[in-house]
Amino acid sequence: MSSNESVSKLADRHLLGNYRRFPIALAKGRGMHVWDESGKRYLDFVAGIAVDVLGHCHPEVVRAIRQQAGTLLHVSNLYHIRPQAELARELTKQCFADRAFFCNSGTEANEAAIKLARKAMSDRGEPKRIEIITTLASFHGRTLGALSATGQKKMKAGFGPMVPGFKHVPFDDVRAVEQAVTSKTCAVMLEPLQGETGVNTPSKNYLKELRKLCDRKKILLILDEIQTGMGRTGHLFAHQGMGVTPDIMTLAKGLGGGVPIGALLTTEKLAATLGPGTHGTTFGGNPLVCAAGLAVTKIVSAKAFLKRVQRAGSYLKKELKKLGDRTGVIQNIRGEGLMIGVDITLPSPAVASACLERGALVNAIAPNTLRFVPPLIVTEREIDRLIKILEKSIVSIQKEDAPS
Fold first, then answer.
1. Which residues contact 379 (CB under 8 A, 6 or more apart)?
2. Is 224 a catalytic residue?
3. Looking at the DSSP assignment, which residues form a beta bridge with residue 187?
4. Measured in whole angstroms, how far is the alpha carbon of residue 172 from the centre of its chain?
5. What pLDDT is recorded for position 2?
6. Would you call 107 helix, strand, or coil by DSSP?
């Protein structure tokens, strides 16, 4: 029995079966590559689902974690924590926000955003304003509140009743949002680009028009930047490239560079809504994850780094277009920076499996859609290698499907 098989058997025996996993066990990572238990190397274009923005085991992140782990791991939010305060300062320096709240995941950050939006309306004397408008095909998390905000029926099956107070409208449709606003609406909540349903990319002025609508209706704009944030789109936060300022922003994924952390960022005025005792977390903002987050933020916020992400994303799109022209199976290349989706006329799970066999990790996000969210340190040479593997995988499937 191989090492991969032994880990697989152990997992099958003791873990919930709620994940559909590839038949390998990843054991080591460095930069753009991971190795499985048998020692096989893979080029990683999944990045822990858009988490490992600096690749695997980036020396600055590892150094920060090691130093903090040897100093102080956990105390609780009953006391001040230097790395937490420093990370809050660094993040707010880079965006519209004045204040930050840290938690353990993107889902928790979105739950905090939901609570903040409702409490803000209550505090201004409008307690009946509890409805939040979100978009169809969105993803905001899997706890009950975040799941209720998510615009995908299939994810809710069997988990009802959902938390009341959410309306779902089509993405990239300002008129639909306007028609959904009532005297009970407190906020509009959405992802700048929808990541989990295929990297759905809005029209140029969509967010600007939503911002105007929210201002006109005196409701809040919440941007879920859990996947789009931390440099993923070639801007530190996607909304900055779209010329829009939200009232509340949520972060996670890339913020920790591989360790679990979520964040809510907001204005001074809204932050005053959540005073002592209104919201909290035991582990959120602990010294270890905040030290990692601070190391990540200092690197990815550099203008030169973000320009490099933009160039790499443009190059990947260009090479995918060429591959589509050669093979005839890749269509509708979309996204921003290094958050790219493509439609493919072959079954995407088969393509992902074929790439795995040839030493590359890619994400089959839907039956005929691939998502590419590599570490933001990816080079053109590594993109070229991915394209070669992808082309060989496509050709092999086409040959298998060809009539004999």
1. 32, 312
2. yes
3. 132, 220
4. 19
5. 78
6. helix
Q: Is 253 known to be catalytic?
A: yes
How many angstroms separate the CA atoms of 22 and 356, rounded? Answer: 9
Low-confidence ranges of the chain (pLDDT < 70): 1, 402-404
**Catalytic residue chosen out of the listed positions 45, 139, 305, 372:** 139
pLDDT for 403 equals 67
Please name the residue that has the structure tokens 């993923």. Answer: 232
Q: Which listed residue (36, 44, 224, 247) is catalytic?
A: 224
Q: Are strands 369-372 and 339-344 parallel, antiparallel or unpaired?
A: antiparallel
Backbone angles phi, psi at 370, to 5 degrees: -110, 145
- Distance in angstroms (rounded) separating the CA atoms of residues 314 and 375: 15
- Going by the DSSP 8-state scheme, the letter that residue 141 receives in this structure is -
Choosing from 253, 305, 317, 372, the catalytic residue is 253
- In this prediction the pTM is 0.97
Closest CA to 313 of 230, 394, 372: 372
- Is 307 annotated in the active site? no
Determine which helix (DSSP H) or strand (DSSP E) holds 64, and give its type and residue range: helix 59-69
Domains contained in the chain, CATH given: 1-40 (no CATH), 59-300 (3.40.640.10), 302-376+384-404 (3.90.1150.10)
